[in-house]
Amino acid sequence: MKLVNQKACAAFTKMACISAMHDGIFDLPTSKLEDLHLYFHAVERWDLSCLDCLPKHVTFICFYNTLNEMAK
To answer: Structural domain tally of the chain?
Structure first.
C-alpha cells in the first residue's frame, strides 16, 4: 500500500510541475502566438523531430519525457 501512495504522490508532483511549466510558457513575455502553435503541433504529433522548430524557452522535451515515463 505504501508503494502505491509513493507512486501516486510522485505522479501528482510531476503533473503539478508540468502545469507550472505550461503556465510559465504561456505567461512569458517572449511567448508569441506562433510559438504556442508550434508547441501544440509538437504535442499533437508527439514527435521529437519538432524540437528544432520550437523556441528555446519551450521545454517540450521535458514534457515528452515525463509523460512517457509516467505511462510505463
So the answer is: 1
Quick: pLDDT tens for 2-22.
767 888 888 888 888 888 877
DSSP string, 26-71: HH-TT--HHHHHHHHHHHHHT-GGGGGGS-TT--HHHHHHHHHHHH
Contact 57, 25 (CB under 8 A): yes
Structural domain range at position 50:
2-71
- What's the whole-model pTM score? 0.67
CA distance 67 to 15: 9
Angle at 57 between CA 30 and CA 46, to 5 degrees: 120
Q: Which residues contact 44 (CB under 8 A, 6 or more apart)?
A: none
